[in-house]
Structure formats: structure tokens, C-alpha cells
Amino acid sequence: MNSAVGRRVRTRVLIVSALATALCSTVHGCTDVHGGAVELSWHLENADGNAVSCEDARIATMWLRWQAGSMDEGEAGPWACKTPSVVTGFVVPQGELAFWVEPTCEGDVAASPGSYTAPAPIVRSVIRGDVVTLNAIVVTVQMDIDPEHGGQMGGCGCNCICRTSRAPTDAGACDAGVDAANPSDAGEPP
Q1: Could you state, in order of their start, the residue ranges of all structural domains in the chain?
Q2: Which of 38, 87, 103, 161 could form an S-S bond across to 59 if both were Cys, CB 3.0 to 4.6 Å?
Q3: What is the pTM of this model?
């Protein structure tokens, strides 16, 4: 009789262990670890050091970019600019990497180079399975208010993608990233 009780107890323990394992894996899930992860946050400011909203700067998303020596660049993102604190997956390669952030406009259009200033690349050592912290990154956005053109930013109302300080003659040109005064050079650096 003692051996029958012992078998039942062992069977119950095995069943409870199997159920606990199955429940735990559905609750906690699995994380693929192919490299390290990066935790970062950002804050937008104008040249005077005052906070600027993503909407006012017309920045839609932020990207994290990295490079190790001469190897190809890597990237993670995009994240909504309004979500100023993120952690990548464990996808960042191991080694000494230089990290930087780049804002983008609606439609994943790159921000004009002169419309923002981000810190120089930050170098960190990445180890597989570890999280590297970049701390708070302050991105200074160019917020020119031009009273001559209705008080709009940069004289055109689209700080993020406006390429010149001239006001467009076509209101839709600015949203398309085109300088209405010279639409043939759309997409070219100023």
C-alpha cells in the first residue's frame, strides 16, 4: 500500500510540475537572445533648452543606429517619438559599438540635417544577453519662428522636413518635403 501512495504522490508531483512549466512558459514567453539590447530615452529641446513636443517639431519617429569600426551600420526602431523611453530586443551585435539617434518625419522621411542636432555617437561595449544603457539623449531641434510667414517654424511650417527658410507657395509642398520655390531638387540635401 505504501508503494501505491508513493506512486500517486510522484504522479501528482509530475503533473503539477508539467502544468507549472506549461503555465510559466505561456505567461513569461521566450526571448531569443542573439546579441545585446540597448535601453535609451530621448528628450527634445529648442536652442534655448526649453522642452519641445514631437508634434511641434514635426518628428514622428526615432531610430537607433550603430556601427563598429568599418562594419555595416545596424539599426533598431522606429519608435514613436511620443514614447521617449525604449529597449531594443537582444539583436545588437557584440563588441565595441558607436550608437546615435536619428529622428524621422511622417512617412519615414529623414529629418533635414540642419533641423536637429543630436549628440555625437556614444561608444559602449555590448555583451550577448546584457542590456546597455545610453541614458537620456537630448536632441536639439531647430524651432525658428518666422513672423513674416505667419509665425510658422522655419518660415514654412514643417521643421522636420523643410529644407529651406523660404515659405512654400504651395501649402502641400512642405508636407511632401518639397521646397515649392524649387521643386526639382526634392530629396536633395540643402
Answers
A1: 1-30, 37-141, 145-185
A2: 103
A3: 0.64
